[in-house]
Design goal:
The chain has helices at about 15-30, 50-55, 65-80, 90-110, 125-135, 155-165, 240-255, 280-295, 295-315, 320-335, 365-370, 380-400, and strands at about 5-10, 30-40, 60-65, 115, 145, 180, 185-190, 220-225, 230-235, 235, 260-265, 270-275, 340-345, 350-355. By secondary structure, it is an alpha/beta fold. A 5-stranded parallel beta sheet has the order 3-2-1-4-5, sandwiched between helices. The protein has a 5-stranded antiparallel beta sheet with strand order 10-9-8-13-14. A 4-stranded antiparallel beta sheet has the order 6-7-12-11, with no helix packed on it. Helix 4 (about 90-110) packs across helix 5, helix 7 crosses helix 8 and helix 9 packs antiparallel against helix 10 (about 320-335).
Length: about 400
């Protein structure tokens, strides 16, 4: 590969991308354009980021506000699919990567870059998510992945490199967690979490209270949906960003949305991480309750099957693909009737439905009631059971004869 002269780097200001700027300049002699996306990291993560990148050696810095796009074009699509990876993970990091990589490509093409770079390790999933996006949107640009090239083999090595090159970082050898935060969630890896036998310490969690410290009185919240998309909280219409932020605060206060997961990475190994997704957990649970009213049995069960496939596509970085677009169309059609309100009770880490309402409800009290009624003739069940059971009955007779 011919060395590029100007490289767009996916930049977060964390340990890895902070040391990549001087490393690229030393090893490739190129200009470095730092590209950072504001997807709701919150806190002070974006404070001083531009100055830090410039002082570290970047020639240009782009910080793009992508929060609303993140919610409407990525999170809500994933939500409508009901995508959850391996029963637990609400895909907070996975779903953000295609958007960040897309913005990086846009900046690279606009600013005349002839190369792309990222700080993903050679063991993780993120390298796949970023590079599959590059292939979809800018296949002609070469990719530099320093973790697959340099001699740094641990986070301790990276910290030492930062110290030698006077790169300011927040990590230390005693505070070694690797965290990724956005509007949807925060993930925690590293440190004692690398051993699945260790319980996460109280210092791991950042967005949610411990359930034992949550309020003793439960809270209720009502979420309004239109065609499967959340639009209001307790009757107040909100933008997607405001809605998620509101439910994050409420869910965090009541200890909602913590998971501790040993997951199967796309690259083949298992890894352990802890995730907090308070608002997302509430929204997903509420939408499922609404679907129980508005979807017929066959559609609901088929949607559940496709949700597994969709979750794997998101996790594996296959966002910019025709199949994902086709599945989006299926889920949008499926949820055309998913309009209504669901009230959830939050209590010390638990989520329970209180009320489900929809103008498109398929629930019929006349049919479901134990009271006998004219709309359902219970005598019909005999013929139904006989027809369904015919193959079972024939096989049983055959086995008895043999």
């Amino acid at each position: 590969m011919q060395k590029p002269k100007k490289v767009a780097l996916a930049y977060s200001g964390g340990l890895d991308t902070s040391i990549i700027i001087p490393w690229l300049k030393e090893n490739y002699g190129c200009e470095v354009v730092a590209v950072c996306g504001d997807i709701g990291q919150g806190g002070d993560e974006l404070d001083g980021l531009r100055d830090k990148a410039l002082k570290t050696g970047a020639s240009e810095v782009y910080i793009e506000d992508m929060r609303e796009e993140f919610v409407t074009e990525y999170l809500w699509r994933m939500l409508r699919a009901g995508a959850v990876y391996e029963h637990k993970y609400l895909l907070g990091t996975s779903i953000a990567r295609p958007l960040l990589a897309k913005k990086q490509v846009e900046v690279a093409l606009k600013s005349g870059c002839d190369g792309l770079a990222h700080g993903c390790t050679g063991k993780g999933n993120d390298q796949v998510r970023f590079e599959l996006t590059y292939k979809a949107l800018a296949p002609h640009l070469p990719v530099i992945a320093p973790w697959r090239e340099w001699d740094i083999v641990s986070r301790e090595d990276a910290i030492d490199y930062a110290a030698k090159h006077q790169v300011p970082i927040a990590q230390s050898t005693t505070k070694i967690y690797s965290r990724d935060r956005n509007l949807w969630h925060i993930s925690h890896e590293g440190g004692e979490l690398e051993d699945p036998a260790n319980a996460p310490s109280d210092g791991v969690w950042m967005l949610t209270r411990s359930p034992k410290d949550a309020p003793d009185a439960p809270a209720t919240v009502t979420i309004g949906f239109e065609k499967g998309t959340p639009v209001s909280v307790d009757g107040k219409r909100m933008s997607g960003v405001e809605l998620v932020e509101t439910l994050n605060r409420l869910g965090g206060e009541h200890g909602i949305g913590r998971i501790d997961l040993v997951e199967n990475r796309f690259v083949g190994m298992k890894s352990r991480g802890c995730y907090e997704t308070p608002g997302g957990a509430i929204i997903l649970a509420a939408l499922r309750e609404l679907e129980s009213l508005t979807l017929d049995r066959s559609t609901m069960h088929y949607k559940q099957k496709l949700a597994i496939d969709y979750a794997e596509m998101v996790y594996n970085g296959l966002w910019f693909t025709p199949l994902r677009e086709a599945l989006d169309a299926f889920f949008a059609k499926t949820l055309e009737t998913a309009t209504g309100e669901v009230t959830m009770k939050l209590y010390k880490g638990n989520l329970d439905p209180v009320s489900r309402k929809s103008p498109n409800s398929l629930y019929s009290l006349n049919i479901a009631s134990f009271t006998m009624g004219a709309e359902y003739d219970q005598k019909d069940a005999r013929g139904f059971i006989n027809l369904i059971g015919l193959p079972i009955q024939v096989r049983a007779a055959m086995l008895k004869q043999s």
